[in-house]
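TASK: fixed-backbone design
INPUT:
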């Protein structure tokens, strides 16, 4: 069923597509296609079949700015929210808009569908309309703040999302350094922070992608273990989830901009799935370093105890081959 990802992209604008044309485009016969759809729909109806056509079902309630803003007066006073049905990448759009943003309010862009969602390390980010949350928030910082080391901001954003999800009843979501959102060993969401220092102000865009309700058959073909909020037993009210995240993010980003990252270090270690664990870190030069996670530093760097010596890493990929420390 490698073609399942392609089936979702062909249906992703919500319009019905004829089974015959899909079967030709995907290179599978009609029966195989319909059996695949049956499998996708095993636990939840993601794709409906009517009049010889397939179409994507709306899985969750539509995202609605009024419903998001209704959750708090602070949201109304601090944020301007735009919602689009479709775009390339909300991060890319807000990065392009930063030089023209002339409001003290934070700009939020939410997309139901991203055609070119960006992940970390140049990867792409997969989401499905109605089954995901994909949005970005732009901050424009004053010149005084530009001296601040903003690299730990992505860790702060990860913590804010974890807190928001915990407030909504989730108990098993952790972080994998620097800011992968995990449900046990599966990725449930990710954060991409981009900065633009070229303009007279510093523009920062925090992009957040969350899997809300994805078909198991789609999760199975991704290149890493993936989970969704539905399987973590959470409320699937996307408007509420976005509202909570915006509020937490605003509170924690303000505190970070005022006081730096040091006050978040303990909190981060407590939320880090691999704190105090033996891990392998794949460094950007491809070196594989094995050590015990000793915590994060003031710049958000990962501190590893490597054979009794503390070493710090600003980037790299924590690998899952973990042995619990005793
Ligand atoms: C990761 O690779 O873990 C980061 C994924 C970040 C995805 C989000 S979805 C909203 C925003 N727009 C993008 O293009 N990327 C981020």
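OUTPUT:
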């Amino acid at each position: 069923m490698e073609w399942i990802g392609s089936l979702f992209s062909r249906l992703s604008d919500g319009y019905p597509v004829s089974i015959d044309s899909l079967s030709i485009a995907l290179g599978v016969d009609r029966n195989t296609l319909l059996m695949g759809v049956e499998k996708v729909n095993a636990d939840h109806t993601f794709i409906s079949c009517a009049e010889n056509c397939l179409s994507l079902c709306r899985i969750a309630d539509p995202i609605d700015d009024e419903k998001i803003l209704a959750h708090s007066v602070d949201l109304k006073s601090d944020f301007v929210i735009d919602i689009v049905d479709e775009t390339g990448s909300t991060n890319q759009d807000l990065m392009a808009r930063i030089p023209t943003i002339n409001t003290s309010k934070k700009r939020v862009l939410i997309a139901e569908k991203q055609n070119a969602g960006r992940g970390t390390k140049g990867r792409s980010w997969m989401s499905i309309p109605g089954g995901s949350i994909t949005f970005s928030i732009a901050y424009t910082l004053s010149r005084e703040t530009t001296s601040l080391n903003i690299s730990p901001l992505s860790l702060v954003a990860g913590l804010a999302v974890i807190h928001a999800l915990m407030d909504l009843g989730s108990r098993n979501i952790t972080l994998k350094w620097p800011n992968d959102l995990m449900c046990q060993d599966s990725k449930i969401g990710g954060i991409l922070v981009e900065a633009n220092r070229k303009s007279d102000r510093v523009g920062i865009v925090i992009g957040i992608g969350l899997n809300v309700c994805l078909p198991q058959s789609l999760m199975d073909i991704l290149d890493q273990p993936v989970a969704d909020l539905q399987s973590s037993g959470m409320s699937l009210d996307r408007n509420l989830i976005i509202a909570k995240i915006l509020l937490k993010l605003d509170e924690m980003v303000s505190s970070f901009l005022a006081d730096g990252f040091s006050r978040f270090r303990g909190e981060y270690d407590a939320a880090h799935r691999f704190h105090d664990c033996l891990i392998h870190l794949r460094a950007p030069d491809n070196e594989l370093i094995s050590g015990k996670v000793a915590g994060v530093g003031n710049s958000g760097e990962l501190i590893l105890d490597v054979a009794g010596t503390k070493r710090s890493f600003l980037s790299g990929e924590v690998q899952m081959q973990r042995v619990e420390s005793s």
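COMMENT: Residues 89-91, 114, 117-120, 123, 125, 134-136, 180, 190-192, 207-209 surround biotin (CB under 6 Å).
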